[in-house]
Amino acid sequence: MAQLPPKLFSSGIEHASFVTSYQILKKAWNVISSNYQDIVTNDGVGLCWKVYKEQNPDLTIIAFEATKDSSNLQSDLISSSDLNKKKNFHQFDFLCSKKNPSFSLNSTAFSLFYDNIQKLDELKSKDYLNHSHKIRWTPEPQIGSPVRPVRQNSSTIRMNQGTQRTIV
């Protein structure tokens, strides 16, 4: 009997109860639909974003919205190798691995990102994104899953339901 290839990614349903138990989806939806009063709205080129920083616990939600006419969406893709060669754009290189050395992006989505790169870089430097630590939620490593090593100076806290919290 032929052996199935290893499972590369887990389905969201495996981690759904964990995500919903922390109200992350509800809070994110409230930011998207502007149900919070303390939202900072920023406008870019064909793009706007809303930033909400919750004081306790330390949580920042950034919701992006395309303001360009959505009927002009292009379905063509741009490859990561083209980004690197033609535009010397290496911001997405972290998505590559030995097994998957290249990837493709929707060209309209990339154009929005590229047109707003300076404002998005400024967004990274704002006070509401500068924390003494960063928390990254990642699934429990599964057989065959692409697991990237965590920096040595970070600590990892195992959570229930097959999830870990990594403090970098």
TrEMBL record:
GO biological process, one term: defense response
Molecular functions per Gene Ontology: carboxylic ester hydrolase activity
Identification of the protein by name: Uncharacterized protein
Gene source species: Medicago truncatula
Classification lineage: Eukaryota, Viridiplantae, Streptophyta, Embryophyta, Tracheophyta
